[in-house]
Amino acid sequence: MKRRGSNLTTSSKRHDPALILLWVGQLFSAIGDHLFLIAITWYSVEKFGSGAGWVLGAGTVATLLFGLFGGVIADRWDRRKTLIFVDLIRGIVVIMLTILHWTEGIELWHLIMVVIVVDILGTIFNPTLTASLFVLCKNEKSLQSLNALMESTHRIARTIVPGLIGALLLMVSLEEFFIVDAFTFFLSALSVLLISKKRFHPKDTGYKTSFDSIQNTSIIYDLMTGIRLLNKNKRIIWAIFSFGGVNFAWSIIFMIGVPLFLNDMSMGVDSYGLIVGVYGVGNILSLFISRSLKIDIKFMYIGHIILCLGFCIIGLSNSIEFVMIGTVLAAIGSPIGDVIMLTIIQTEFPSKMIGKIYSIKGLIGGASLSLGALVAAPLYAVLPIKTVILLFSLIILLIGVLGLLSNKYLLNYQHFVTVK
Questions:
Q1: N or C: which end of the chain has fewer CB within 10 A?
Q2: What are 190-206's pLDDT values in tens digits?
Q3: CA within 13 Å, CB half, 101
């Protein structure tokens, strides 16, 4: 079946100033996100001890509860205005923590409320940005490259932030990290503001240009429409749940297992920081590879298999060198599916449904990560670390192989419906 994006014109400048501006803004925002997470985590631990769990848990719960509705908002409101206002509000909310520190002091409930607000706004911003990329691009191949670039922002941030923290702490206190984060949100808003309104609302998309694009239907009805549309595309349903299964295993292996494994090898936090940095470098390499791949969901499953091989090397390692080799390989396999799936969602579904489909994917992925973290503790308590890592690596392999086998079958029975 011909994709919706295949009708787009293929004539475009090699370097689009608007897209470069958007990418730079999102890179600053990603750096701020990682600084915010580190600052609020360590501040919570230092000031409130075990109460830090309430802070981090509140953000996770808020994301899971409001994730789907963020996609509905992304599809009903003017996307350019939404991106700008959400970033401005996030920046104001975050900077309030530093103001509170300078005045009456930061209480635990202040941290909880800020995390909840920032994470809820994130569930609106992310699908809005994803849904906007299609109309900002000139053609389908440019869209795939742009997806790869946008995916790279958090990977680059993950790589450089550990070194950046040391430099910043020489100049500002931990509480003043929040000013830096707020500034990155403002830069992100400015980058969107500088992009022409016409780029967000080209005439041939049928997308309305202001907040009057809100439909007369209820939010619940709008959400159910997206779910019904997704249900008609069996390939994407299978891919999204496969993505959730891999996230579940990834959480158990990389988020919990790798730190435990390094600790068991008598290595310190510096070694863990090195592994996280190496993973970020591998992710960036993967994004360059994914830009040149054909837009085919089978590459997502191939990425799962590469991820499995990398984790297997880690599980069989006896030295930091082999752990690093396995980490690079796993990191190369991980983002391929993200870029391919995003591009397919953006090109196979109507523009006004992209936010909802993306939010469904995000909800399943986020819930799987959280569930994996919960399951990991009892697993590692009763089984050897290497056994758990290898076991869930094989589960990732199984998901990848089943995905490849089922993809052709599901493609033959796929029904594409455009919601007018």
A1: C
A2: 999 988 887 876 554 44
A3: 16
